[in-house]
Amino acid sequence: MSKVKPALLRGFDQEYLPQEQLQFNELVDVIRRNFERYGFLPLETPSAERKEVLTSKGGVEKEIYALSRLAADSEDEAATSGALRFDLTVPLARYVAMRERDLAFPFRRYQIQRVWRGESPQARKGRFREFYQCDIDIIGREKLGYLAEAEIPSVIHSVFEEMGIGRFRIRINNRKVLKGLLAHFGVPEQGAAAVLRALDKIEKEAETKVLGDLEREGMPRAGARELYGTVARKRETDETLKLLASLAGGNAVLGQGLEESRRIVAAIRQFGVPDSAFGMDLGVVRGLDYYTGTIYETTLVDHPELGSICSGGRYDDLASYFTDTRLPGVGISIGLTRLFSRLREAGLLRKPARTPAEVLITTMEGQDLVGYLNMARRLREAGINTEVYLEEARLKHQLAYAEKKGFRVALIAGESEAAKGVVQVKNLAARSAADCPAGELVAAVRTLLQQSPELRKS
Predict the structure, then answer these.
(1) Residue 161 CB partners (closer than 8 Å, separation 6+)
(2) What is the pTM of this model?
(3) What are the chain's domains?
């Protein structure tokens, strides 16, 4: 029989060793825990949606994977009408429109699921065709106050503080500020989108390239340079607000964006986010046709090359394609697969705090299996995850297995231990061992596991 070469599809090739999967799962746990800490409720939607749902808000068809079967019949609705979701926002819009009467508004939901997008995979940039997104959104019915926009940075700050991945900065801007700035520099409304696309490349392209793009869009050289300097220069938040105030005279849109930004900045500070972790940044340009108020991007201070690790913003109407009810909202998304890939490459991931089972019961040939199983049962009933080594192997091999798999404790109960009525409790991190009376085993193991992380092997 010929063998099939074990290989993965490009863009669908993110699978990890068990220890890496534990690190990934730990990031998911951190994100979920912090989302729930702020009162967001969990939501899962089907992997596949109807094609007309996915394309309703301008989903790019060439990036959407349609469903099919290798041998499908013409009456298979999923194969003829279904496709895989490319983000979590469109399914959210469909969900809220369908269940509007059953939900409590403001509706606060989080969603951690896979999405599929047919764009060119670039593993070095963390771009894949199958990846996890972690989203939160606050959806209002007919109205949504500005405090929701101010709370989002507090959630972001809480998530990345607990992740412990180094200094980060939540960069905020306002779409009305951007629109007002373009008007100030004489950019006509019909050319605004193209100019914003050029400004969005400030941190990715050389200054001469961006200036050339601005001039090609009809801006005079002097105006292009002044606009570039206004947007590209890094300032403290209060300095940015003062600059906008100096430009806002007679510019109603810029004045409105400035006032909204002042309120948001003051409220973010009231939520307890330090100025070292957030700032008003005119260089944040995103969501050209989607966001209407505050926009967010989060970057790592010491690793700017990783790009945005979390982004989002305020929008006026989530589900206008599905319902006449106005559903304004604000949300953010963490591309977890991309983030994990880049953090792993940069060496910023912590070792898992624990493994699924932290205790290994070694077994000796000729000893009573029932005794080992009863020992495991007592530990599990006490809430201590425990594995029993069930194959015949020398003790040296079993301990090597424990080390490689990441157990913190190994229990040894051979003939000599049985004769004395004790169990040897081996601290694999500290490379030490002590005998414990069999009746006190649960308490001894629990005490050992509760010791500070410094005592574990790094």
Answers:
(1) none
(2) 0.90
(3) 18-345 (3.30.930.10), 359-455 (3.40.50.800)
